[in-house]
Structures are given as structure tokens and as C-alpha cells.
Design a protein that fits this description.
globular, 12 helices, 3-stranded antiparallel sheet, alpha/beta
Length: 340
Amino acid sequence: YITAVITDPPYYDAIAYADLSDFFYVWLKRVLNDVYPFNFSTPQTPKSEECTALKHHHHNDLDKAKEHFEHKLLEIFDAIEQQTSHIVSIMFAHQSTEAWTTLCNSILGARLNITGSWAIDTERSSRSLALAKSALASSVTVSCVPSQREGFGGYKEVKKAIEITVAKEVEELYRLGFRGADLLTACFGQAVSVFGKYETVEKADGSEVAVAELLEMARESAFNALLKGFVGDDFTKFYIAWLQLYGFIESDFDDAAKFSRVGLSINVQELFTDHILIKNGNKQALGGYKERLAASKNLGEKVGSHLIDKVHRTMHLFQGSNRGNLLEYIHRVASNPDSP
């Protein structure tokens, strides 16, 4: 038995650890084979039991590779839970909900209970690994303890607790300077800690709440928490919250549809018509003021324009050389110092 475990698990096929290790293994084998014959008994590093989803180790079958990774991760956390008396600390630096769903399913499936999470500013901006696009600027450390779960949780009760917990976390992390996906991802661990207190969380019809639903709940709570106290039209609210959670990186179409329904009266198609979001295939990204002005020359000029449209026209004029145009526009749309 051991007191504590600190680990940084791999993520699907992001890095071929064993393949990379062969570079060192072949030289170490020549030097240390007579000292550690058992450890260097194979020509190269063993690959079949590696906790990754590399399809070339599974007859080029991606589904089998993913299944192997998920089963292996659960198996490892299960062994950790059985052998550890005090605390398990898991580092994670991936922003996708799918990645967090896999991690949380493995943690909860192994009867570990998440007690909290911390975002730590750790990553170099020059990071150039294959996963850099989906990597965070910070690492999230998730703290767990061996099983301490009790009974069943009601969906409404747990949802309310998650909203309160995430709202507090957003406020604190925002104050510390976390933004975008880092801010959102750091909330996931706290949300799962509420969920993980129970054997299962059930809806009124008796169906169990899945981890994917829970993380969706956490994202919605974070979205709402960012808009707390902001007075303005729904399009501007959407723009501000999306900017804080995603920045200008591309995201899946479904994300826009989900967030447009979170306490806002917006048809998702209007977000594209007004160039709040700009499509790129089945992805989209938030439109900056330059892209929005290029798509709509009169942006912010109409009576009743959205607040974000006026802000973007002001930014455009601020970049120009004619200060008079900027002052005239501000006087026209925001002559009152109390104007939003």
C-alpha cells in the first residue's frame, strides 16, 4: 500500500510514448543489459500494454485502439484506488469535453472521489507538440481520494450545487487571470467533485446522469457566471461569454447551439447572419472587429444596433487616423457617460 499517487495520464494517441522511448532503450540495453537482464530482455520497449490509443499497435483499427486506452485507464485507476490510502493527484492539460469525459469516467468508474481541482499556470507558449492546438496554457490538477461515496443524489439538487460551486470558481479564477478554455476546464474538476459524492445521480424518471451531461452542466454554469451583473442585449452577452470561454479558437457547431439556449433568446442562425460567429466547414470561431467590418460595412451604424456592433465600430475607428470620426461616433451613440 502507498500513501499518495501523483500522475499525469496520457491522452488517446497524442504522443507515442513507447515508440519515443525506443531511441533511449536501444542504447541503455547495450550499456545495462548485463546489470538488468530482465528489464532489457526484449529487442525494443514493450508496446501491447501501453496506455495509449495508437492504431498501429491494434492492426490499424482506431476503434479497438480507443477501447484499449479507455479500458487500460480505468484498470490503472482501479489499481490505484485499491492500493492508495490517502490522496491521488492527477494532472491534466487538455481542453476538450471528450477528454474530460474519458478521464472522469475512469476516475469515477474506479470508485475514486474527486475532492477538488486547481488550475496552475505551467505551459510554455512555444509548446509545439501534436496536441498543442487542444492544449491549455495551464495544467489542471485534480485531487481525489479513495471511495467515500454515499447513496443517491437528485438531479435538481446536484445541478443547483454545481451552479453555486462553478460560480464561485469562475469568480476566483477570473480574479487570478485565467481566461478562455483554461477558465472553463478548471471548473470541470470542481463540478465533478459535487457529482462524485454520490454512488449515482438520478433524474426524476430514475435514469442516471452521465458524466458528459454533468460537464455540459458545468459549462452552462460557467457561461452564466461570466455574465453575472452584465446589462446588455443578448447578442453582446453571448459575445462576451464566448470570448471569455473560447477566445478566438475554433469550436464545434454544437457548442454554439447549446450556449445560444442558455438563458438567452437567440436563434443560433442569427449569430452567423450577424457575423458574431464565422463558419469554417463544420467549425466556427468568434468574429473579431476586422472580420465583422469586412463582412458588414455599416456595422454599428443602425439605430438599435447591438452593443457589441457599436464597440466593434469604435475599435475600427480607433485604429484609423481620423480622431474626429471616432469622437463624432462616440458622441452619436454614447453621449451619456453612463451609456453601456
